[in-house]
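Notebook, student rotation project (T.W.).
Task set for the rotation: take a protein with a known small-molecule partner, predict the structure of the complex, and write up what can be learned from the model alone. Partner molecule chosen: NAP. Sequence and SMILES entered below by T.W., checked by me.
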Amino acid sequence: MSNIEQSDTFRLGDRMVKRLGYGAMQLAGPGVFGPPKDHHAALAVLRHAIASGVNHIDTSDFYGPHLTNQLIREALAPYARDLVIVTKIGARRGVDASWIPAFSPEELTRAVHDNLRNLGVDVLEVVNLRAMFGIHGPAEGSIEAPLTVLAELQRKGLMRHIGLSNVTPAQIEEGRRICRIVCVQNNYNLAHRADDALIDELARQGIAYVPFFPLGGFTPLQSSTLSDVAARLGATPMQIALAWLLRRAPNVLLIPGTSSLAHLRENLAAAELDLPDDVASALDGIAANTAPAHGATSR
Ligand SMILES: NC(=O)c1ccc[n+]([C@@H]2O[C@H](COP(=O)([O-])OP(=O)(O)OC[C@H]3O[C@@H](n4cnc5c(N)ncnc54)[C@H](OP(=O)(O)O)[C@@H]3O)[C@@H](O)[C@H]2O)c1
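Predicted structure of the complex:
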């Protein structure tokens, strides 16, 4: 079994977490809506992640909706003391599986209570406010009003830490004037590198950067360079993509998503890969030859 017990850590809030974690979004049904195709397999994936040393899980109550958090609770409660579950709010789901912005004080408060109830905890460890100004990625717009609501809920003791998702550097600066921001979760991977400068700046500030779509999201990354490097190192392309992210900066925390036990094992084994400098340089060239990443409509 791949075990990431010895792998690097980085601070998330006031806890140190392994840099290789797990993203739970893929556990819900197609379109991140409805129950998983195999309930027992979903529980097995979650339990295997924890048994392998994962102590950082990313989720949201709008995955399913509600069902992904309920699966996490069924599989893992009572939770290990070192497990950090990070959730996100700022959207709700329509009956047609659509993603609807949900930023009123009432909607944000309800979302926090939904997460508490469905995860079965008294306090949420980290809540990300997921901005929804742009359809295909971050776009400017003030986050002051919803973040002030979140900061008030934090003062009431409903969450320990606050992060931001799908945000611009200006929104992060605005957010940091309102409350402490412990992590930023944006779309970033080998082929989609709009946040290169932001990652380095956040590293200097000691803030975790958590790329979503680390494997390319719903359309996993494909590149001949990636395949060639994988063949040369006796690894899979997805492992190389994760190893490149681990090498990218010390504040990068990974949450690759999968509903498959085999893929989970494969992804966790990426922690053992050491990329030589010439390989990392070749992989750096991929972004220059790639169109913007797909899948920007999901959360
Ligand atoms: N803040 C946001 O707006 C936002 C947006 C999207 C996602 N997220 C979070 O980020 C996490 C990661 O993103 P993601 O799950 O969308 O995308 P991802 O991790 O980039 O890729 C997931 C996709 O890759 C496949 N996959 C996983 N491991 C694989 C492997 N070893 N070989 C081949 N295919 C593999 C998965 O299918 P299988 O299930 O078949 O393995 C799934 O289709 C999510 O789980 C979620 O927690 C946040």
